[in-house]
Amino acid sequence: QVQLLESGGGSVQAGGSLRLSCVASGLTLSDKCVGWFRQAPGKKREVVAVIDSSDSITRAESVRGRFTISKDNPKNTLNLQMNSLKPEDTAMYYCAARAVWHCTTVSPEFYNYWGQGTQVTVSS
After folding, report:
1. β-strand partners of 70
2. For a 10 Å CB count at each end of the chain, is N or C smaller?
3. Are 83 and 106 in contact (CB under 8 A)?
4. C-alpha span between 100 and 1 (Å, rounded)
């Protein structure tokens, strides 16, 4: 049974930082397309960043230069370092995985496995 367990969310002021982690069980992150998505109230779920088996990264333009996605393969963990946070980053953040080597799409409907989400709230 595949489980993705996120942690690290919280409340910060604008300009602050948070680090999200996603521990996987039942699947190996190193040879999959994995990533972070977010969903704000009343909005569609959107990609934040994804990374594949060759460590190729695709990220949303809105987080470029501020957010860094990385994998810790020995710990089977996916991380998201978020710096210079803005109020518009407020959302529920989800870890997700596709059972493929390469991330040919960032559309959420193509991702097979999801965590329960962790809330990030940024105040101005």
Report:
1. 79
2. N
3. no
4. 17
Q: Report the side by side order of strands in the sheet with 67-72.
A: 3-7, 18-25, 77-82, 67-72
Determine the Cα angle at 50 with ends 103 and 102, to 5°.
20
User: Tens digits of per-residue pLDDT, 23-78?
Assistant: 999 999 999 999 999 999 999 999 999 999 999 999 999 999 999 999 999 999 99
Provide the 10 A C-beta neighbour count for residue 3: 12
Question: What are 28-38's pLDDT values in tens digits?
Answer: 999 999 999 99
In whole angstroms, give the CA distance from residue 33 to residue 56: 9
What residue type is assigned to position 92 of the chain?
M
Look up residue 21 and give its two tokens.
Answer: 């982690």
Q: In this structure, what token pair is assigned to residue 112?
A: 């097979």
Which SS3 state, helix, strand or coil, does residue 91 take? strand
Amino acid identity at 72 = D
Per-residue pLDDT reduced to its tens digit, 85-122: 999 999 999 999 999 999 999 999 999 999 999 999 99
